[in-house]
Amino acid sequence: MKRIIRNHILIIMFMTTSIISSGQTKINNPFGLVYQDVITDNVSGEVNIHPVTYKLNGIHISANVYTPANFDPSKKYPAVVVAHPNGGVKEQVAGLYAQRLAESGYITIAADASYQGASGGEPRNVDKPAFRIEDIRGMADFITQYAGVNKEQLGLLGICGGGGYSLAAAQTDKRFKAVATLSMFNSGLVRRNGFRDSQLETIQERLEQASEARALEAAGGEIRYAADTEITDEMADKMPFDLYREGHYYYNRTHTHPNSTFRYTMSSLLDLMAFDATTNMDLINQPLLMMAGSKADTYYMTDNAFNLATGTNEKELFLIDGATHIQTYYVPEYVEQAINKLNEFFGKYL
Question: Which CATH superfamily, name and number, covers 19-190+248-349?
Fold first, then answer.
């Protein structure tokens, strides 16, 4: 049984569904948004969305800024940076939470990570922790200069992989006055050990593959990718973990977006496998809220990080009753629980 589960995980980690697939969501929204109750037009007096671009270390970053109803740039508002999941883009769950927080009076920003989504960077889909952390700092750079933002009231929300990178960013970047995560995913831990330690036996083998890929890139050869093959619904249904099974349907059926892909350069593993979001967790001295579904099979990552956050006196672990990891992305009752808790948390500390 252990071998069967390990083989399933190897398939999951190195393959993913093609974005162009039957049954996918058709994007009719003018802003490319694919979540529920999206903004379809910027109406005066309501929450508005503002597509923006800026440069970060020479790379063009594509982002959406959400402003509250009756926004007045001459006034000052608290702001929240929202970091998207691995493989995700700003038009999916990150955009949903950014919009909902804007409905509560915050100016929010959700940006595509560099090398991913609509942002620049070559080769495509490089996925290095240092870049993802820098992306979060870059969002802070931009939004704290945005008209109407009170830079002393800056919060951070990281979702899934963006949650792990948000923890790492907040360890040293004290512009963030309050830090929250939703369904936190420790990317380095999972890329190294496999989900729930399912790939411990192949660590050195995968590092060899990553090293070969790096050498090939340096020689001007092909770019090798992990997670770049189609998975069918039937294959997904047999996956042993809710995270991957439900993630397949979320990303490739109900909330698919052409810029969203799970593939990443094989050479990225040289950096990913040496990274752990929980290293130096004691450096977080800001108020910390970590939220996870009570049925999430990723909960062990949130629990571990939370227990290591010994540097803050204001921390809370909040379980979203009945939710799995992916369900916190879109199921209305679970999103509502998370938003209510975020409003309470940011309302208190920003």
Answer: Alpha/Beta hydrolase fold, catalytic domain (3.40.50.1820)
